[in-house]
Structures are given as C-alpha cells and as structure tokens.
Design a protein that fits this description.
Largest sheet: none
CATH architecture of one domain: Up-down Bundle
Number of strands: 0
CATH class of one domain: Mainly Alpha
Shape: elongated
Distance between the termini: 110 Å
Radius of gyration: 35 Å
Order of helices and strands: HHHHHHHHHH
Oligomer: single chain
Number of helices: 10
Length: 219
Amino acid sequence: MDIRTGFFYLFSAVLLFASFRVITARNPVYAALYLVLAFFQAAAVWILLKAEFLAISLVLVYVGAVMVLFLFVVMMLDINVDAMRAGFWKHFPLAASVGALIALEMAAVLMGGFRLGEEPRALPAAGQGAAQVSNTKELGKLLYTQYLYPLEIAAVILLVAIIAAIALTLRRRKDSRHMDPSDQVRVKARDRMQVIKMGPTMAAPEPEPAPPGAGEAKA
C-alpha cells in the first residue's frame, strides 16, 4: 500500500467518524463543527482524486460561508434540544426506511465503479510528450462554451433571488431615525458648525434682589 492509498483510508475513516457524530451529537454546535470536519475530509479526498476545483469550492462555499452562517444562527438562537427530540422515535421507522433506500441506491451506483474491467493504458512518463491537463481549466472551458446559456440563466435566477430577499426583508423601522444620503452630500460646513466670537473674560451676573417679605415668611 502506497502513501496515497494510506491517506485515502485515513481521510475516509475520519470522514465516516465525523458524519456519524453529526447525527449523534446532542449539542447542535458540536454537530455543526463535526460537519465542518466532514467537509474538510471530503475536500482532502477530492484532492487525492485530482479534483482540485471541487475541493476548493467545497471549502470556500460550504465551510467558509454556509457553515459559518449556520454556526452563527445556532449560537444566537436559544434552541431547546429536548423539544426538538420530542417525537423522535415516533418517526424513526420512516426515517430508517428512507435512509436504507438511499443507502441501497448509492451502493447500486458505486458498485459499478468497483467492477474489474480492462486495465487502463499506461500514461507516458514526463518528458515523453505527456500533456499536463488541468481539470479546472477544462471545466472552465466546458462551462463557458457548451453550458454558457444554462450558466447565465442560473446567474440571473440567483440575482433575482438576491433582489427578492432584500426587498422582502427591507422594513423601515419607526423607532430609528432615517437619514437621506442626498441631504448629507449637499450639506455645507457652515450648516454643521457655527463659530461664535466670545470675549476672554466675562463679568459675573449680579444676583437678583430678594423680593420683600421673603425673609419674614421663612421666619
């Protein structure tokens, strides 16, 4: 067994352990952290398979954006774990049936890749005319040539979704003061501050005389 195969088994074992802990951890924060670990191990496996673009996309998109946002939401909300687990065993048979069906489908798909076929042809060694092919470059060529229109349609749909989310969540609060940016731009310095000339010294004001009869009233 070479070092590449050893790393594959190592990353796969950690991936299976992290995936198991995602569904068995009682604390949702720990479950999210185990899911981050599972994403990192899956990215490492993809790097071993020379799928660098997928590995970097997994780390940047899911670990760097989605899971960080999910962790912030989980830590900010006061989640009642006992209330979430109420009725778990009632739905367990249905969940187990769906999980078993998905496992059988994945096994049927993956078993085709383990069947022995004809041996692959040996690639020429470096310096013997072997072309260095970058899968990221080939994927970019494929996206922007053959799948250009679906990519643009997906980009437009995402843009519309972003605008719709901003429009739906934009609310003008009555308890906060609203400032018009155009008024802030047009304001002049003399409108913000006024300089008043005052003397260096000022005479103390004389005390007002007490009204007649004030001392007798106190007495």
